[in-house]
Amino acid sequence: MSEKLKGKTVAILATDGFEESELSEPKAALEREGATVHVIAPDKDSIRAWAKTDWGPNYDVDHRLEQANADDYDALELPGGLFNPDALRQNEQALAFTRHFFEAQKPVAAICHGPWLLINAGVVKGRRMTSYPSVEQDLRNAGAEWVDQEVVVDSGLVTSRKPDDLEAFCSKLIEEIAEGKHSRQHA
After folding, report:
1. Active-site residues: which are they?
2. What is the SS3 assignment for 121-166?
3. What global pTM score does this model have?
4. What value does the mean pLDDT take over residues 5-30?
5. What range(s) does the DJ-1/PfpI domain occupy (predicted)?
6. Of 28, 49, 51, 187, which is the most buried if we count CB atoms within 10 A?
């Protein structure tokens, strides 16, 4: 175990239908580096994973979204999956929670379909990002510059395309959290 992220607390915002590896692998990587990680979900004590092609196990929720305070966290991670970000992007509390991290210039990481939540939060315009290929046009329509790379970093915003990119995604997420707050280089 490393001490690189000792004293840092990271929120993972998810609900039913998150891609299992996109929550479990970043959570484990962050904890190995010394971070405290909380799974946050709207109105639930546990959430059910989607494991590649079918429903997976339930994961415990540390805090319900209505009780979570974004000020208590140093960074935010948004796993993908189809169902999870589609539900969260329609939840005003999830959108407000997410916006707070951008307003406070804290690191945010989103993988696969996770950027859907960022689009609805109104925080992607002018950002260089990647995502699952089917989200490309949505990001472009929202004003982002979409690129096909395993991981893209833009002023503390880390994005990746799919579970195959998790190693690079986790590495950059850890790096950005260790660096702390990031001011926008461009609008």
Report:
1. 113
2. HCCCCCCEECCCHHHHHHHHHCCCEECCCCEEEECCEEEECCHHHH
3. 0.96
4. 98
5. 8-176
6. 49
Please give the full DSSP string across the chain, using - where no structure is assigned. ---TTTT-EEEEE--TTEEHHHHHHHHHHHHHTT-EEEEEETT-SEEEEEETTEEEEEEE-SEEGGG--GGG-SEEEE---SHHHHHHTT-HHHHHHHHHHHHTT--EEEETTTHHHHHHHT--TT-EE---GGGHHHHHHTT-EE---SEEEETTEEEESSGGGHHHHHHHHHHHHHH-----S--
Partnered with residue 84 across adjacent β-strands are none
Phi-psi region of 122 (alpha: psi -120 to 50; beta: other; left: phi over 0): left
pLDDT in tens, 98-155: 999 999 999 999 999 999 999 999 999 999 999 999 999 999 999 999 999 999 999 9
